[in-house]
Amino acid sequence: MPAFLKKRDNILVLVFGVVLAFFIGRMLQMQLIQGDEYESQIYKGTIKTQTVEAARGEMTDRYGNPIVTNRVSMNLVLDKAYLPAETQNEIILQLMGLLEQSGEQWVDELPVSQGQPYAFEGTDAEITALKKFAGVNDYADAEEVMHWLLERFGLDNAQVKNEAGKLVDPERIYSQKEQRRLAGVLYTMERKGFSLSSPYTFAEDISTRTATIISERSITSPGVSVEQGSARSYPGGSMAAHILGHVGPLTEANIQEFEANGTEYELDDIIGQDGLEKLYETELQGEDGERLVYVNENGEVTDSSISVEPQAGNTVMLTLDSRLQKIAEQSIEDQIHHLNETAPEGQGREANAGAVCAIDVKTGEVLVLASYPSYDPNTLSEGYSELSVDPDRPLRNRALLDTYTPGSIFKPVVALAGLASGEIDSDSLVNCNHVYNYYASVYGAQAFTPTCLGYHGDITVKEALKYSCNIFFYDVGRRVGIDAIVDAAQMLGLGVNNGFELWTNPGTISSPATAEATGEKWYYGDVLQSSIGQRFNKYTPLQLAAYCMNLANRGTQNRVTILKAIKDYSMAETKYEHKTEVLQESPVDPALFDPIFEGMVAASRTGTAASYFGNYPVDVASKTGTPETADLPNSTFICFAPADDPQIAISVVIEQGWHGYTGAPVARDILDAYFSSDVTAQEPQQSGSLLP
Fold it and tell me: What is the CATH architecture assignment of 322-377+400-674?
């Protein structure tokens, strides 16, 4: 053999040896070092990406006690990858029947009535979105839209077809009930982007029993599974229910509103729908993560791993004191029941609702915000239909939304107007002989002679507040005029924005402008009625508490707030902490408030509220009110304490409570708890000559 050929052969042998050694080494590596990894890949088959739900932030009271928390829930989920198209509708109907038997609901966001003739239900935005989806004009009615939907989803009994367009079962006829139910679910599924990569939550927070039944039937229902999720929980039951709000799926009606905050949402995201849940949505909403799920050819999950960690939402710490909140809610309920059981007809027996608020005088932080009657948000979805038609309106947030004529608790405003204008001082006297005759003869047939509940003789501002003398305030109000009264009311925070985060009814100050705005005339006697808190004066319980706080601060207005702090989910990091914000410094000499305070303390010690605070260990400055209404008189009450160094301001309103002092025991219960007093509450007074 020639030498050059021998040399070539040697090179080839060498190359072959190197290649052989590489493959042997690679095989050893695959078997010995990476064997387990490659073996697992054989069985994994496919990889799916799933969303890992981030924990929604929770809410606490000012001391960190939980008010709104999260709990583990079970959701019924449909997976398009394994849900047979030809039997999808039948599986959905079976699930509906199972849920119905268990008294549970499924997700249906179709804004159309269940029965014929079909009619639109829901918000304008939801109906508009439906019409856009159906491609019909704005004037189309619900019958037309349903006709299109039934055709779109193959539910019109003329073409029950699969995705390939082939007839599945020509003999299958859907009932009207089945048509509407399927249309509702299929519409919702498509709107929420049901696809191979996006499973659909068919029902939320199902019971353990239902979840067990579905899991046992999963073999006969491919593509149906029960997955773990989270749901809101309210450890305090009905406590603060009216302000907390609730959560629910994002809808077409509110997606633009929320995305305006700069946060991107999916249509199946759970968001705050109202109340504090909605107000602090951006803080409470966490950032979802991602999970890689490995599935073999049999559809079995073989492995999973977190690829993107979820970020939990923040904890919102409220200013509420849960202990005081519970006491206030129980106290106003007990007082109303007491009046129902013991008061005569027309004198408190008819009391049926009310509200109570308490504010930290130094900071403007709301300690109590309660409306009665209330409800348990844990069972709101199940009981909503009944609650919504209850004549006592338990869903109504009376503390923030309903306005009430204040009656005599408005009199400190007129006292301040008189003192600030110089029309009166602490020693000025007004004669009360039961009837105010200033307009008795001047206007002839139009004579106006309002009365007082007593005969007080010559009386000072202190005594007038103590006994709630109408004549005194008629006279002072007439002398200073309505403009001065309006200025004093606004100085004390009535009829103006107090900075509270949730929307609250602004109320109205009685004035010629208010009369004109309501289409009524202003008469000369209206200034007298306005001076005792009547006519067009109307304020929310929260406004009345803020007014009491500003009075206690001698005219300095603190911004009213419900937010104490924002912390991360673990509460280790503080991202925001409330600092007292002064909206307006007192524009008058603080000394002008001295006779007002003295009169309000006298009302507690020996006047209209003496039954409850006559021997109280802390000086309480209070004022009672019995405003006249179209029905029976309401009860209004305000107080702050201690009078010499105010810390807490309280307002109580009891609808049809008759006397102002019927709200006093509610305030006393709060003060007892606030000061840790052992004083025993007295029974409400049912008769007497000192009417507020």
Answer: 3-Layer(aba) Sandwich (3.40)
